[in-house]
Design goal:
Helix 1 packs antiparallel against helix 7, helix 1 crosses helix 8 and helix 9 runs antiparallel to helix 11. A two-stranded antiparallel ribbon has the order 1-6. About 55% of the residues lie in helices and about 5% in strands. The protein is mainly α and about 425 residues long.
Length: about 425
C-alpha cells in the first residue's frame, strides 16, 4: 500500500505550551484507557464466541450453529472500533494480521466449490484444504497436521510461504468455518454452510467433521489468547500504553495518524472505493457473513470516538475523558466544530449503508456494476471519509504535528494502477 504524505505546516497555537503539554498527558491517558476498554470488550465477546463454538462442536445442531454465528457477529462490534489504533501504534499493527487479516484464500482451510479453482502461480496452497489433509508438504517439508492446534495454525500455516492470502487464523478464518463460501455473487444471501458439517458419524456432510471442529476450536481459542495479550498491552504497565505515554508529542501524532490512515487509505480506499471500482463481491471485509456494512460502520465509529475521547462499552458503560477534540478546540474552536461536523456526516453516510443492508439491500448487491443506488450509498461513505481526512490534515497543522504519513490507496491516489 502506498503512503499518502500530508505535510503539516506550522501554525501558531492560541494557548500556552505548558497548558497544552498538561492536556496532552490527560488526552493520551484517556486514549489508552479507551483502547484497554475496547480490547477488553473484544476479549469478552470472543470468549462468548468461544463458548458458543464449544457448544456447537459438542452438540451440533442448526440452532447451535446459529448461536455461534450470532456470537461472531457480536464480537465484531467492539473489535472494529479498535482498528483506529492500528496505524501509528507499532505494537497493534504488527499484531493485527493475526486476528483480522483479509482477504483469504479459503481453500487453504476447507472444502470449496469447484468454481473456486485450484492452486495458482501466486499461491500453490490456495486449495490445500487443511481440514481434509492430516499431512501435507510445505516448503519442501512434510507437516504433521493429524491434530489441528492453535500452534499449528499460528506457527506453520498462517501466511504460509510468506503469502498474505494464506490466512489461517483470526476472525475471517472463523467466519468462513461458520458460514462457508458466499456463492451468491451479487445476489441475495450469505454463506450457507450446513450445521451437519459439524455432525457426528453418518450425519456428517462434506467429510472430516471432527477435523473441521478441531480447526474451528483451535482458531477460536487462538483468537481469545491473542486478544488477551493485546488487552494486557493497554493495561497499566502494558507496553502499548507505555509507548503512547512516553512522549507526549509522539503520542498525539499516533492518535492523528490512526484517524487519518484508517479514514483515508484503509477504509475509504482499500475497503470501499476499490470494491466500487472492481464491482467485485469478494471485495467485502466480512464477505462470508455479509456483515461488511457493520464493519464499515464500526470502523467509522472508532475514528469518531477517538477524536471525542469516549466509548460505550458492551455493557453500556461510558468511558470518556480528555480528548484530541479538547486540544483542537483550544487551538481553533472553528476547526473543532468542523471536525465534529464531518465525523457526524460520515457516520450518517455509513449509517445509511448499514440501514439499507439491514433492510435487505446487501453490501455485495451494492457493489454490482450498474447499480447506481448501491454505488451512491458506498461513495457517500467514501466521500465523507475523504472529507474528514482533509480536516484531520488541518489538525496536524494547527497542532504543529510535522511529517505525518497517512496510509494511501491506489484506488484514490492512482486509480489507473488498479487495473494493471
Amino acid at each position: 500500500m502506498k503512503s499518502l504524505f500530508f505535510a503539516a505546516t506550522a501554525l501558531g497555537l492560541t494557548m500556552g505550551t505548558a497548558v497544552l503539554a498538561a492536556n496532552k498527558a490527560d488526552v493520551l491517558s484517556n486514549y489508552a484507557t479507551i483502547a484497554e476498554a475496547k480490547y477488553q470488550d473484544s476479549l469478552i465477546t470472543a470468549q462468548l464466541l468461544q463458548s458458543a463454538v464449544n457448544k456447537l462442536i459438542a452438540n451440533p445442531s442448526a440452532e447451535n450453529l446459529q448461536l455461534a454465528k450470532d456470537a461472531w457477529l457480536a464480537s465484531r462490534v467492539p473489535y472494529q472500533q479498535t482498528e483506529v489504533y492500528r496505524f501509528g501504534n507499532a505494537i497493534v499493527d504488527e499484531w493485527e494480521g493475526k486476528v483480522n487479516a483479509w482477504p483469504l484464500d479459503e481453500g487453504l482451510i476447507d472444502y470449496v466449490d469447484a468454481s473456486y479453482g485450484g492452486p495458482s502461480d501466486e499461491n500453490e496452497l490456495a486449495a490445500l484444504n487443511i481440514v481434509a489433509n492430516p499431512s501435507f508438504t510445505l516448503s519442501g517439508k512434510t507437516v504433521d497436521a493429524v491434530k489441528i492446534t492453535p500452534q499449528l495454525l499460528a506457527d506453520t500455516l498462517h501466511e504460509a510461504d510468506g503469502i498474505e492470502a494464506n490466512v489461517a487464523t483470526g476472525y475471517h478464518a472463523i467466519e468462513f468455518l461458520l458460514w462457508g463460501q458466499d456463492l451468491n455473487g451479487h445476489g441475495i444471501g450469505a454463506g450457507n454452510r450446513p450445521w451437519t458439517d459439524y455432525a457426528k458419524g453418518e450425519n456428517c456432510t462434506h467429510d472430516n467433521c471432527d477435523r473441521r471442529g478441531q480447526y474451528l476450536k483451535a482458531a477460536t481459542d487462538l483468537l481469545v489468547s491473542d486478544l488477551e495479550w493485546m488487552a494486557a498491552q493497554w493495561a497499566d504497565g502494558g507496553a502499548a500504553r507505555a509507548s503512547v505515554l512516553e512522549d507526549e508529542n509522539a503520542g498525539i501524532v499516533t492518535i492523528v495518524t490512526g484517524m487519518g490512515s484508517l479514514s483515508y487509505g484503509e477504509q475509504a480506499g482499500e475497503r470501499m472505493r476499490l470494491g466500487v471500482m472492481l464491482n467485485d463481491p469478494e471485495e467485502e471485509h466480512d464477505c462470508f457473513s455479509d456483515n461488511t456494512h457493520n464493519s464499515h460502520y464500526y470502523d467509522g465509529l472508532g475514528v469518531q470516538n477517538v477524536y471525542l475521547g469516549e466509548y460505550v462499552r458492551v455493557n453500556g458503560e461510558l468511558v470518556s475523558g480528555p480528548a484530541l477534540a479538547d486540544l483542537v478546540a483550544a487551538a481553533d474552536a472553528d476547526l473543532d466544530v468542523e471536525m465534529r461536523t464531518k465525523l457526524a456526516t460520515t457516520m450518517m453516510a455509513l449509517g445509511r449503508i448499514k440501514t439499507a443492508a439491514e433492510s435487505g439491500f446487501a453490501y455485495d448487491q451494492m457493489l454490482e456494476r450498474g447499480n447506481a443506488a448501491g454505488e451512491a450509498l458506498i461513495m457517500g461513505g467514501v466521500d465523507g471519509l475523504i472529507d474528514q481526512t482533509r480536516s484531520i490534515q488541518r489538525i496536524t497543522a494547527t497542532l504543529k504535528l510535522d511529517n505525518i504519513d497517512f496510509e494511501g490507496s491506489d484506488s484514490l491516489d492512482n486509480p489507473n494502477a488498479v487495473f494493471h
